[in-house]
Amino acid sequence: MPMYYTPKVLLRQVPNGLLWDYFVVKRKQLRDVSWGRLRETDVEPIHDALLKLPEADRREIGGHFRAIAEMARREFTPWLIRVARERDIDLVKPFHRKSCAYERAFWMFLKHPGVFEEARTLAQWERLPRRSMEKRIGLPAMEPEITPEVLEQFGRAMADYYQENQGRGDHCKVEHFLRSGHMDFFFAYPADYADVLIGYEDGGNFARREWKPAFEVIIGFDRLAGSLDLYAEGTRDVRDELVSIFARTVLKLNFEPPRATKAPYNLQLLLQPGFQFPTAPEDNVRWIKMRTIRVRKETSIEQILFDVGSGEASRDIHDLIDEALNQMNLPLERLVATQASFQAGFETGRKQPKTVNFTITHPSGCTLRDSDEDLTLRRYLRQWNIAS
User: Fold this and answer.
1) Handedness of CA 295, 297, 302, 306 (dihedral sign)
2) In the chain, where does DSSP find H-type helix?
3) Beta bridge partners of 305
4) 143, exposed or middle or buried, with CB in 10 Å at 0-12, 13-18, 19+?
5) Nearest 10 degrees: CA dihedral of 370, 372, 373, 375?
6) Could you say which DSSP state residue 203 is in?
7) What is the rounded end-to-end Cα distance, in angstroms, of the chain?
8) pLDDT (tens digit per residue) in 115-153
9) Which pTM was predicted?
10) What are the extents of the domains in the chain?
């Protein structure tokens, strides 16, 4: 959610036509507002009418507006497009006509609420703190059988674990999303310890109310790689047990997947003249190139950076290396590659491809995240033998 969210900010950013669709058409409210006479960004009459609604309605509208404001960020627009594409909904042209991220998010909330909610949930994965995540490997590459019964069993086993060991978790809802055809995301919400909230009930009564918030446990399972990423706060033992529960209830396996050491990257391959990055047409990779590579002498801490700049048409970096090494009289085999940056262009149906930049640092650093394009590039790193 944006740090300074207020209803007036959202009302000013969203065209009056969409606000009319939301209030008048969808909710049958604010019909007394002179919508036809309002100028864009003239939000005072709308805001004043909103404040006169019953408190329960204002609370519901506030929840909707907060969700929309949360997704009204430029970096989250691609999530809306990706989830819609998986449902055969093309948003590229409709979004091209929208003026800003607020309008895109509000339009999606109205026209495709299911896509909106799924994209919002998956965007949550992107924002998770990496310090509470770890990777497990050694699982079979498989397509898990996901049914309501399996999700219920997974949630029940997780609730039992938290109840027995931490005295919380008496309820646990699990939601599942499949992305990019091979990434299964499981969002589990165990009940936390009971808490008391102090606030106002409908009608303005000041009260204390007990409730049980939920905390999150999230697992991303890669069907192709046989690996999973786990997000869960707690100790090493907690994560071990959660992974075992997942393997047993969802994958029907009776062993604990081992922890992955940070994925090693072999950058020495990139020094080979003529090293290629083959891709398949169905992945829509228009081009990929190595933009920079940093090397050091095998017996020295001194480093050399080769940089051919960005863009599809820039020269091949191996030509630059060959030219420089001839001048410095330094054999290629005496160099150790320590870092490389890449640039890839993906076809989007528009004139300009979508550009993805990422950097790999030996032995374990990689800036790729979890977007569709990033997942495609991660798969290719394994195919090119750069990543193990």
Assistant:
1) negative
2) 7-13, 16-20, 44-51, 55-71, 77-86, 92-96, 101-111, 113-126, 148-166, 236-249, 317-328, 372-383
3) 294
4) exposed
5) 50
6) T
7) 37
8) 898 888 877 777 777 667 788 888 899 999 999 999 999
9) 0.61
10) 7-126, 130-249, 268-383
